[in-house]
Amino acid sequence: MLWRAAPLVVAFAVIVAVWQTVIWVFAPHVSLLPPPLLPAQEFWKLLASGELFVHTGMSLMRVVSAWLLAGCVAIPLGLAMGWSTRFERIADPFVELFRPISPLAWIPLAILWFGINEAGKIFVVFIATFFPTLISTVAGVKRIDPVLVHAGQVLGCIDQQSLFRKVILPAALPSIIVGLRISFGTGWAAIIAAELVAARSGLGYLIANGMEVLRADKVLVGMVMIGLLGVAFDALFRQLSRRYSWGRT
After folding, report:
1. Would residue 56 be called left, alpha or beta, if left means φ above 0 and alpha means ψ between -120 and 50 degrees?
2. What domains sit in the chain, N to C, each tagged with a CATH number?
3. Measuring CA to CA, which residue among 208, 189, 219, 192 is closest to residue 46?
4. Are 126 and 71 in contact (CB under 8 A)?
5. Interatomic CA distance for residues 102 and 125, integer angstroms
6. Are 244 and 176 in contact (CB under 8 A)?
7. Per-position b or e across 93-107, b if 16+ CB within 10 A of its CB
8. 110 within 8 A of 123, measured Cβ to Cβ
């Protein structure tokens, strides 16, 4: 609904007003901070030429591919770790050793291993999205009320497979969705960093290219597009979270 977008419109208006005020007061060079009209014109220029769609599509393709791949690995692993204490004791040390390493620290290795092709960037985003999804899934299983498990057993879930399918997975689903939402955000940040140093397309490349030619308006177009996409995907995940949270908001 339109009223839900009102805070975003107000925030955007405030940002533009502060931006223009800074220009009036400090009068920076246009290559450092252009007036709001210049990035707006560049935005429509890139949109009309189709270049913005190409860069956006490449970034989205990389993030979604790695995010889906990470989910396919992290969710089953997290469900197993949350359900089986013995398996968690085996897997947790490996998770805790790798989890603190920043995804950005993997970029040099990704370039060495995969070059600047797609596999390297997908690898970096996979690392960034894997651990938030895994941790949220484990936490979701561990937070399940034992009463629900007992009720499922009483109502006919006599084997582990049916109990897991009908009780454990649905009860953990809200936490899994939260993990997917968080991981998508971290993956989006990681792909921009990877594209800044090892890409010939994508929004990160657009920003880096603008920096190289001293075109702050191009840099700002890339940043604005990242923000718009972030808001859109966050709204999508909020809707999914409401749908699968059984009445909670």
Report:
1. alpha
2. 45-243 (1.10.3720.10)
3. 219
4. no
5. 11
6. no
7. eebeeeeeeebbebb
8. yes
**How confident is the prediction along the chain (249 residues), in pLDDT tens digits per residue?**
556 667 778 888 899 899 889 888 887 878 788 898 999 999 999 999 999 999 999 999 999 999 999 999 999 999 999 988 899 999 999 999 999 999 989 988 988 898 878 888 999 999 999 999 999 999 999 888 777 767 766 666 666 677 777 778 888 888 999 999 999 989 988 888 888 876 788 998 899 888 888 889 999 999 989 888 888 888 888 887 777 665 444
Q: What tokens appear for 94 in the block?
A: 């490996």
Look up residue 69 and give its amino acid: L
Closest CA to 235 of 181, 193, 199: 181
- CA nearest neighbour of 122 among 63, 172, 77: 63
Question: What's the one-letter identity of residue 123?
Answer: F
Which two three-digit tokens encode residue 246? 């059984």
Q: How far apart are the first and last CA of the chain?
A: 17
* DSSP-based three-state secondary structure for 201: coil
Distance separating alpha carbons of residues 179 and 139, to the nearest angstrom: 10
Greatest Cα pair distance, the chain, in angstroms, is 73
